[in-house]
Specification:
mainly beta; Immunoglobulin-like; 2 domains; about 10% helix; elongated; disordered N terminus
């Protein structure tokens, strides 16, 4: 009888200890440095080597990699987003979620599981010792459209362009950070010298503009616009270059 009562008491105390251990654990330096990596599924051109940034509605993949691989075999992780539990303790070092229309704060807890046993060696539960907490913020951006001037297939980014009449100049509108996989999901529009004009038939993101003699001495902004097709609240962005015909 005494053995049974002691076992019941051990179970009760151990369950209370689990809660106290998780809430009140003093974080230590047992966890070595870690690498946090993330990527949004937004569109960028093939030559872009930076990070794909999120806009509202973007899917985000975030992962954590401890540098001490031997120790990390025992680690478990808990993920919270904006102070709400997203994924409870598990060995998964990666989550995927969708951004809403607000910036978010992520909190990653790293811990270890330990068995709780009675004095006679029977396992009656387990506790989690939190080793480290890692706060991480993700900020929303807006889609961007960069307007380039093309010269022998080389892109430049002038804000003002002076060129002679009687020649054709080429422009390319390059979108960044839209929630799409293919540039064909965007609608492009152009305007110059107070007229709306169309891009190339097969490549509406590109424009070939011939400057005739009547435009000599005139200046105008050439503007490009892009908006996402099929969106209830479409993302739209624009950019322009001032051109002067000599």
């Amino acid at each position: 009888m005494k053995k049974i009562l002691f076992t019941i008491l051990a179970i009760y105390l151990s369950s209370s200890f689990v809660l106290a251990q998780e809430l009140d654990s003093q974080l230590s330096n047992k966890v070595s440095d870690v690498i946090i990596d993330w990527q949004a599924n937004t569109y960028t051109p093939f030559w872009y080597q930076g990070r794909k940034l999120p806009i509202a509605g973007s899917e985000i993949k975030i992962s954590i990699t401890p540098l001490d691989l031997k120790k990390s075999l025992k680690y478990i992780y808990r993920w919270s987003i904006n102070d709400k539990l997203f994924k409870d303790w598990s060995a998964e070092k990666e989550i995927v979620f969708k951004m809403e229309n607000i910036d978010i704060s992520i909190n990653i807890s790293i811990g270890e599981r330990e068995d709780i046993k009675t004095f006679i060696g029977d396992k009656v539960g387990e506790r989690v010792t939190i080793l480290k907490r890692l706060p991480y913020d993700l900020l929303l951006v807006e889609p961007e459209l960069i307007l380039y001037s093309e010269n022998n297939n080389f892109l430049t980014y002038p804000k003002r362009l002076e060129t002679s009449t009687g020649k054709t100049i080429k422009f390319s509108a390059v979108p960044f950070f839209f929630n799409l996989n293919n540039i064909n999901q965007l609608n492009f529009n152009w305007s110059v010298f107070n007229k709306k004009i169309s891009g190339e038939d097969l490549n509406p993101d590109k424009l070939s503009l011939f400057l005739n003699q009547s435009l000599k001495g005139q200046s105008s902004y050439i503007s490009a616009y892009a908006n996402q097709l099929g969106e209830l609240v479409p993302f739209q962005t624009s950019n322009n270059i001032l051109i002067h015909a000599k």
